[in-house]
Amino acid sequence: MLKAGVLGAGHLGKIHLRLLQESQEYELVGFYDIDEASGRKVEEEFGYRYFNDLDALIAAVDVVDVVTPTLSHFETGKKSILAGKHLFIEKPITNTVEEAEELTRLAKEHNVKGQVGHVERFNPAFKAVAGKIDNPMFIEAHRLAEFNPRGTDVPVVLDLMIHDIDAILSVVKSEVKEIKANGVSVISDTPDIANARIEFENGCVANLTASRISLKNMRKARFFQRDAYISVDFLEKKCEVVKMKDAPQQPGDFDMILQNAEGLKKQIYFDNPQVNPNNAILEELNSFAQAIKNDTTPVVSLEQGTNALRVAKKIIQSFN
């Protein structure tokens, strides 16, 4: 088992602590939090060992799990890599693209694995259809959340939209050509609602909307490609695949047939894959352990986390 330590014992940090303790891949050594009073309280309540010295925790583990605020990702991530430790780091990978690029370079130099916590890649609904998304040419994503004061210190693009940016970059095999975006600050100092149009070199267009001041929660994406429409509900863990094929000569009574102006007939049919329930955070952590043990590339590499951040930053820049 890999010895693991968690940096940061906030809301998400506590979840990581519980799951690492449950995992068959890791031995949870303990955690560090900059707020010693809070750390001692977590230790007393849950029984996890609290380290009041960051270097001592890093020295005691094989894998460092960074669940601290984004501004400290680079410093703690760099310290972990330089100590020769594998690095799991929550999204966004760092505060700046330059920091992300340096972490990626250092990880290669020190021959350690790194994975970024883009958990929607492990969402069972997305996993069920990811293999069926083939050269999509139009994508629409909506990620709406009810207001929560936690997270409002960063733009909604880095808080919410980056999930969809990463998912889209994972299925569109083309470079980004142009980005146009608009963001509005309603109750925060940074934008609370944003829309971005991403054009890719291959002609694909992705339209993304994110809001953290909505009346209801929604996390949906739709992918349109030749002869297929694929929808993913990340919140409800549901997906739908609608396909078209040449209509049979003798359609059945219940066959759904479309005919265009030229007389071409297509049959619509449903090809809905099975969605296997999972705990996405536990699965991403376990997948990282497997990447370390088998010396394979993590599902969400530091390079991919950097690419998602790069696009997110360009979206934010285009607000101005």
TrEMBL record:
<feature type="domain" description="GFO/IDH/MocA-like oxidoreductase">
    <location>
        <begin position="155"/>
        <end position="216"/>
    </location>
</feature>
<dbReference type="Pfam" id="PF01408">
    <property type="entry name" value="GFO_IDH_MocA"/>
</dbReference>
<dbReference type="InterPro" id="IPR051450">
    <property type="entry name" value="Gfo/Idh/MocA_Oxidoreductases"/>
</dbReference>
<protein>
    <submittedName>
        <fullName>Gfo/Idh/MocA family oxidoreductase</fullName>
    </submittedName>
</protein>
<dbReference type="Pfam" id="PF22725">
    <property type="entry name" value="GFO_IDH_MocA_C3"/>
</dbReference>
<dbReference type="InterPro" id="IPR036291">
    <property type="entry name" value="NAD(P)-bd_dom_sf"/>
</dbReference>
<dbReference type="InterPro" id="IPR055170">
    <property type="entry name" value="GFO_IDH_MocA-like_dom"/>
</dbReference>
<feature type="domain" description="Gfo/Idh/MocA-like oxidoreductase N-terminal">
    <location>
        <begin position="3"/>
        <end position="118"/>
    </location>
</feature>
<dbReference type="InterPro" id="IPR000683">
    <property type="entry name" value="Gfo/Idh/MocA-like_OxRdtase_N"/>
</dbReference>
